[in-house]
């Protein structure tokens, strides 16, 4: 099967520079989209074809399109950063491309070649590079590649047609408070994913499943929900859309991948960044009892959430049915901020990229 090259059909009506600059001055998260998008089709027997870079626009779907009924959908999130010399670079797109392939396998979808995924992201960023926010701030251009089943029909089976798209959105802080600590509700009854399920795939269904528990967290006055494992209701898994890290002085722990935890690119990068800075960074099981006990006895000094959208966000108050505690003094921890800065320095091109993570356009 051939890999399509992406044909450019530029927008005849891009936003004016003044309109774009007004959006870039305060982009929020996921509220505004750039002038173009990439689309590539897949058809059984033909493979990937008709790669196009077209004006950003609504897509039209038959009401019986299978994704609307059976949720055969996967997505990714990665960012492009303005570099000090004005150029643009994306962060570890091949990691997202590889995870996209794993998600596709889990949802019985066709695998997009890694190089096509990267080519699609490159093409969109190159075309819409005026949308990449200025160097040095919190802002970046968030890329959202995704794939949907587009066969029309109500039979439950892997579709015979798919559409891959990449859209882009200028992004500021995911949480309105920026690096202000977020509060967490530990849900001990609702679960995000089960062993043998699709918790390690990046598919919309996992996020839909998290919304009720997220609403319950909000009703308890918390910003985010934290899930425990589905069998013992004991082991910390992840938040609704972010991984977690626990800081024990010089030792930094993230819950070990269990099959129901999403393998975050930021999670993985922080293992490397932390080791570069001389920390012991490990993947281990962490129980909610241990979390509460070690916070209360002071050995667990900091906790933070991490993800492409959230970058690194400190955790402040933690609540569970049996009580609550305060992580640190309610201020972002020193290690949290150090790791955050070290990662952002690489992404913004102000520190050496010794792992070869940045892809310059
Ligand atoms: C990301 O961090 O890129 C995600 O996909 C998570 C979502 C909460 C925005």
From TrEMBL:
Pfam families: Aminotran_4 (PF01063). CDD domains: BCAT_beta_family. The keyword Transferase applies. Keywords: Amino-acid biosynthesis, Aminotransferase, Branched-chain amino acid biosynthesis, Pyridoxal phosphate, Transferase. Its cofactor is pyridoxal 5'-phosphate. InterPro entries: Aminotrans_IV, Aminotrans_IV_CS, Aminotransferase-like, B_amino_transII, BCAT-like_C, BCAT-like_N, BCAT_family. It is an enzyme of class 2 (transferase). It catalyses: L-valine + 2-oxoglutarate = 3-methyl-2-oxobutanoate + L-glutamate; L-leucine + 2-oxoglutarate = 4-methyl-2-oxopentanoate + L-glutamate; L-isoleucine + 2-oxoglutarate = (S)-3-methyl-2-oxopentanoate + L-glutamate. Pathway: Amino-acid biosynthesis; L-leucine biosynthesis; L-leucine from 3-methyl-2-oxobutanoate: step 4/4; Amino-acid biosynthesis; L-valine biosynthesis; L-valine from pyruvate: step 4/4; Amino-acid biosynthesis; L-isoleucine biosynthesis; L-isoleucine from 2-oxobutanoate: step 4/4. This is Branched-chain-amino-acid aminotransferase. Its EC number is 2.6.1.42. Belongs to the class-IV pyridoxal-phosphate-dependent aminotransferase family. One of its GO terms (molecular function) is transaminase activity.
């Amino acid at each position: 099967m051939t890999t399509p090259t992406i044909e450019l059909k530029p927008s005849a009506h891009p936003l004016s520079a003044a309109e774009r600059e007004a959006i870039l001055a305060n982009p929020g998260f996921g509220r505004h989209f750039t002038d173009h998008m990439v689309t590539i089709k897949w058809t059984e027997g033909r493979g990937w074809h008709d790669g196009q870079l077209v004006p950003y626009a609504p897509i039209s779907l038959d009401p019986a399109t299978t994704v609307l009924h059976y949720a055969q959908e996967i997505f990714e999130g990665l960012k492009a950063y303005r570099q000090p010399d004005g150029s643009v670079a994306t962060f570890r797109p091949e990691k997202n491309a590889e995870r996209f392939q794993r998600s596709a396998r889990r949802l019985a979808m066709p695998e997009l070649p890694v190089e096509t995924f990267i080519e699609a992201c490159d093409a969109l960023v190159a075309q819409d590079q005026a949308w990449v926010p200025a160097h040095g701030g919190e802002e970046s251009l968030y890329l959202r590649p995704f794939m949907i089943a587009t066969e029309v029909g109500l039979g439950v089976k892997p579709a015979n047609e798919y559409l891959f798209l990449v859209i882009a959105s200028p992004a500021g802080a995911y949480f309105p408070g920026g690096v202000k600590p977020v509060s967490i509700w530990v849900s001990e009854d609702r679960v995000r994913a089960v062993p043998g399920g699709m918790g390690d795939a990046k598919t919309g269904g996992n996020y839909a499943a998290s919304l009720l528990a997220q609403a319950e967290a909000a009703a308890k006055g918390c910003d985010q929900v934290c899930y425990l494992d589905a069998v013992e209701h004991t082991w910390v898994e992840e938040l609704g859309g972010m991984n977690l890290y626990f800081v024990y002085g010089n030792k930094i722990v993230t819950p070990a991948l269990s099959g129901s935890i999403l393998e975050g690119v930021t999670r993985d990068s922080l293992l490397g960044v932390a080791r570069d800075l001389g920390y012991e960074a490990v993947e281990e099981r962490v129980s909610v009892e241990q979390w509460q006990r070690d916070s209360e006895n002071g050995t667990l000094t900091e906790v933070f959430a991490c993800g492409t959208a959230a970058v690194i966000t400190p955790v402040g108050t933690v609540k569970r049915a049996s009580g609550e505690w305060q992580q640190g003094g309610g201020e972002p921890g020193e290690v949290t901020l150090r790791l955050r800065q070290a990662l952002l320095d690489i992404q913004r091109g102000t520190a050496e990229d010794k792992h070869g993570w940045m892809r310059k356009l």
